[in-house]
Design a protein that fits this description.
With about 270 residues, the protein is mainly α. It is built from 13 helices and no strands. It folds into two domains: about 100 residues, Serine Threonine Protein Phosphatase 5, Tetratricopeptide repeat; about 100 residues, no CATH class.
Length: about 270
């Protein structure tokens, strides 16, 4: 009913309702802003969106579009105060919007990308930690925070969150596969100095990859990494006989993976 009254007021050019006039003015500013934004004229778009919000702050998407315009103006790697201020403004606006629309994943992705482009990974982690208090089962959020901790170089915290993914997505073999790959990448490229810790990571990775293979028997990608972790275990053995046994097991798993790949290729060739 209110919208119909506003429309009627506009048609008869009545100025008796300031609220309706403000809505019309704000919509005109938004229209101009949208046109500028579509043409990547983010400075002009920002001016019009900001003016529209000053006239009528009740349009819920204005915070988002002001944030997007600030992102459009931001230049990665530019550390000038003016550019950093654009990052600050974009982050403030998108956080404000997401408090009202937490389910908007596109806006959330834009915010996280802004954090990362501005080298503010710790703020991105804080955002997801706060978000997960109210949405503890949001799998995509858990995946994001695991990735962010990995980007920070905090392996232990990252692995904890990858483990949470396997709990939340326990019927998906890929969740266990990714956990195993993360373990391999750690021991192969940046291993802890303590050999017991390294062995513990190897064992965790092996268990996860074996779980993935148990769930998906032709999972040759998981077999490839399981093979590599057996070889890492062999390097840690003090008993030469056990080391040989580890390598033999790695060879066995690798050969199974190769056979599966050959079979799949043959099946694809038969279909073509």
């Amino acid at each position: 009913m209110k919208k119909r009254l506003c429309l009627l007021s506009a048609l008869i050019l009545s100025l008796s309702s300031a609220g309706c006039v403000d809505q019309i003015k704000a919509r005109m500013e938004i229209k101009d802003a949208n046109t500028a934004y579509e043409h990547e004229d983010y400075k002009t778009a920002l001016q019009h969106y900001t003016t529209a919000r000053q006239i009528d702050p009740n349009f819920p998407d204005l915070d988002r579009m002001i944030g997007y315009s600030q992102i459009g103006l931001y230049v990665p790697e530019d550390k000038s105060p003016a550019n950093e201020a654009r990052a600050d403004a974009a982050i403030i606006e998108l956080n404000k919007y997401l408090k009202k629309r937490p389910e908007d994943r596109i806006a959330r992705d834009a915010l996280i990308n802004m954090y990362l482009n501005a080298n503010r990974t710790s703020q991105a982690v804080d955002y997801f930690r706060n978000y997960l208090v109210a949405h503890p089962a949001d799998l995509e959020a858990v995946k994001s925070i695991a990735t962010l901790y990995a980007k920070q170089g905090d392996f232990n915290e990252s692995l904890n969150w990858y483990r949470k993914i396997t709990l939340l997505d326990s019927k998906n073999p890929e969740a266990f596969y990714i956990f195993g790959v993360v373990c391999y990448e750690k021991v192969a490229k940046n291993p802890p100095a303590d050999l017991a810790q390294k062995l513990d990571i190897v064992m965790q990775g092996k268990r996860a990859l074996q779980q993935a293979i148990n769930m998906k028997t032709d999972y040759f990608e998981a077999m490839a990494y399981l093979n590599l972790l057996w070889r890492q275990q062999a390097l840690l053995e003090t008993d030469p006989l056990k080391a040989q046994q580890d390598v033999a097991e790695a060879d066995n798993i690798r050969n199974k993976a190769v056979e599966i790949i050959k079979k799949k290729k043959a099946q694809q060739g038969a279909k073509s």
